[in-house]
Specification:
Length: 156
């Protein structure tokens, strides 16, 4: 019983000390010191420097927004890699991102026109692809094969 009473008194003393001593006196004094320091720091920064910091922050915010809206090429590169015939090699790629779609233009080489047709059909079978166009194809020589250009429109 006396032990419980001593513990109760200790807890009550700590509570009263925290409530009326620490919080009221110490924390309010520390808060007023921090506010004074903040005010002096704010006054020491010129209007031009404030504008400069604001402009810099605006630029960072705009860059962040652009990066979030821009599409990322990695999923489309793996999509192309997984759906390319072994006889086809690509020499160039152009990615253009729109709001809901991505347009991929591929320039490549293959041995024959039949491989170009097979490649077009392979891309048409992919569920995310909405359109596949052959932009051009031309036979160079039996050793070099066919140069071609394909445009693929896919959902983002």
């Amino acid at each position: 019983m006396t032990f419980s009473f001593v513990v109760f008194l200790a807890v009550a003393a700590v509570y009263i000390g925290m409530r009326f001593g620490f919080e009221k006196v110490y924390l309010k004094r520390a808060l007023s010191q921090e506010e004074a320091e903040f005010t002096s720091t704010f006054k020491s920064v010129s209007t031009e420097e404030q504008k400069s910091v604001f402009n810099f922050y605006s630029q960072l915010s705009n860059i962040d927004t652009l990066l979030k809206k821009q599409g990322k090429a990695t999923p489309h590169l793996s999509f192309i890699e997984q759906n390319t015939l072994k006889t086809v090699t690509y020499s160039g790629m152009d990615l253009r991102f729109a709001d809901r779609s991505v347009v991929i233009v591929l320039n490549g080489k293959t041995a024959a026109y039949a491989s170009v047709v097979q490649q077009l059909e392979l891309y048409k079978r992919v569920s995310t692809v909405t359109e596949v166009k052959l932009l051009g194809a031309r036979f160079i020589s039996p050793a070099e094969g066919v140069d071609f250009s394909i445009q693929i429109t896919a959902a983002r």
